[in-house]
Specification:
It is a single chain. By secondary structure, the chain is mainly alpha-helical. It has a domain at 75-329. It contains 25 helices and no strands. The protein has helices at residues 7-28, 36-55, 60-71, 75-93, 96-107, 113-128, 131-148, 153-170, 175-184, 188-214, 224-237, 246-256, 261-279, 281-287, 294-307, 316-322, 331-349, 352-361, 367-385, 388-405, 410-424, 432-441, 445-448, 453-468, 475-479. α3 packs across α17. It is globular. 53% of the residues are buried.
């Protein structure tokens, strides 16, 4: 008979983790995710394992095996992360990213840049069903435009995150949007229609806030001559042409045609090399030192793919903007995700996660507390298991019976799960989503968190609707 942990014992590793993470943020600030938080997660995992062995009398080998198995659940995310690192470097070399930024600066006014960024990311994410693909393509261009226009990077990243997650959440092509109703026991389109009541107000309020913020950043902070200088350096360093827009368009079409994200992004990276050879011959000539041999070109392309693009124009703005990408730039994030998955695996195999879930269910007494508990549990699992898919699956299973007892349609559960699990995953620095967005955009999670208005509002609106008993559709209505 396996010994069941008490609630206090189950919460001990979580408390240890929260204390260590808080102290790391106090000591290291934004740099806490570059080593300190990884060690905090590992130490908290060791605490969980020690409790499992010495208090719960579990076999250590089995605990370790199960914890390592949990890493397998994150392998897909890790592979995408590494490929996107290469894609960013190669797309800068090919001129795709500079072209998107160049035309973006010329076309978008600083006053409307934030709301326009939200709308662009919403449309792209809705069409592709992938917030990850959106941020890895148009997201990196928008963050570059925002930096050039002198808009705080946290605000720009917040608009990108808000739009990407609204589109992802409402798209029938999204994996999380398909997973949530499957776990709750309802159909996809009933789920999407029901989410309009929470996602609609959340994105409208977010859009209004970004419109208001835009008036405070109307371009007065930088002169027209500075912008012209940046555009001039970009034009002289890269071959800027609208033809380069065809590459991200090809990737979007592949994703829309339901080609899995990994092969679609790999195709985008390989095509990026082809585009570099076709469109950036002059740049390659410079980077190879005038020796345009196959070996030298291969060396430059491969170096860019694994170590990123190195801009040396002499212009500080341009060099900061384009010196990025490469697989190596993602290794810190890979380390963070590995440690996070080990911690989540330790909690699960020792039974601590189930014990905490049981304690939450005992507090449910009505519709409001049920929805609040669903949202709260989703957020808690995003923090402890570090993966939105685990949060969606576990919360959906855990609360399915409780919604039936309250005579509530399963789509109420699937909506609450998405409002809690999907949108908040990107707000946790060590969650796969938070780590990915932070690495790709080059903006710390805690820097964009206050401006990710859609992601912050969705859980609150979900709970408010439950408290007002609005849109909480009963089971009886469908039966009738």
């Amino acid at each position: 008979m396996i010994k069941k942990p008490s609630l206090f014992v189950a919460l001990t590793p979580v408390i240890v983790l929260i204390v260590l993470l808080s102290f790391n943020v106090y000591v290291f600030s934004d740099n806490s995710s570059y080593g300190p938080n990884q060690l905090a997660l590992l130490f908290a995992a060791i605490v969980a394992a020690a409790i499992g062995v010495f208090h719960l009398k579990l076999n250590y080998s089995k605990i370790e095996d199960k914890a390592i198995d949990s890493i397998g659940m994150a392998m897909h995310a890790l592979l995408i992360l590494l490929v996107v690192g290469s894609l960013i470097g190669v797309w800068i070399l090919s001129g795709v990213v500079p072209t998107m930024i160049y035309y973006g600066i010329k076309m978008i006014s600083p006053t409307v840049f934030l709301p326009v960024s939200l709308i662009i990311c919403s449309v792209v994410s809705l069409a592709t069903g992938s917030s990850w693909s959106t941020v890895g393509t148009v997201g990196i261009a928008l963050i570059g435009i925002g930096q050039t226009l002198g808009i705080p990077e946290g605000m720009v990243a917040g608009a990108i995150v808000s739009g990407s997650y609204f589109g992802d959440k409402m798209s029938p092509l999204s994996d999380t949007t398909n997973l949530a109703p499957a776990m709750a026991g309802t159909d996809l389109f009933s789920h999407i229609r029901h989410m309009v009541y929470t996602s609609g107000p959340a994105v409208i309020i977010s859009l209004i806030i970004f419109i208001v913020l835009g008036f405070f950043y109307n371009g007065d902070s930088i002169s027209t001559s500075e912008v012209d200088t940046v555009l001039g350096v970009m034009n002289s360093s890269f071959n800027i042409t609208p033809w380069l827009f065809t590459l991200p368009l090809i990737v979007f079409l592949l994703v829309k045609k339901k080609v899995p994200a990994l092969p679609a992004l790999l195709a985008g990276t390989i095509l990026g090399v082809v585009y570099a050879v076709i469109f950036q011959g002059e740049l390659l000539q410079t980077l190879t030192g005038g020796s345009n041999t196959f070996t030298k070109t291969y060396e430059v392309v491969l170096s860019t793919a694994f170590d990123g693009f190195k801009s040396e124009t002499g212009n500080a703005v341009i060099d900061k903007l384009f010196s990025r990408g490469g697989m190596s730039s993602m290794l810190n994030t890979v380390w963070l995700i590995l440690m996070a998955m080990i911690f989540g695996g330790m909690l699960e195999v020792t039974g601590m996660l189930n014990r905490i879930a049981e304690a939450i269910l005992t507090m449910v007494s009505g519709v409001t507390s049920l929805v609040a508990s669903t949202v709260g549990t989703s957020i808690f699992l995003n923090i402890t298991t570090s993966d939105q898919y685990i949060a969606i699956v576990l919360t959906g299973r855990m609360f399915k019976g409780a919604y039936k007892e309250q005579n509530l349609h399963p789509k109420n559960l699937s909506r609450a799960v998405e409002d809690g699990a999907t949108v908040t995953s990107v707000l946790v620095p060590w969650n796969t989503c938070g780590a990915y967005f932070s690495s790709v955009l080059g903006v710390a999670t805690l820097t964009y968190l206050p401006f990710a208005f859609f992601n912050l509002l969705s859980p609150l609106i979900s709970i408010l609707l439950a408290a007002s008993n609005k849109t909480m559709e009963p089971l009886d209505k469908e039966k009738a």
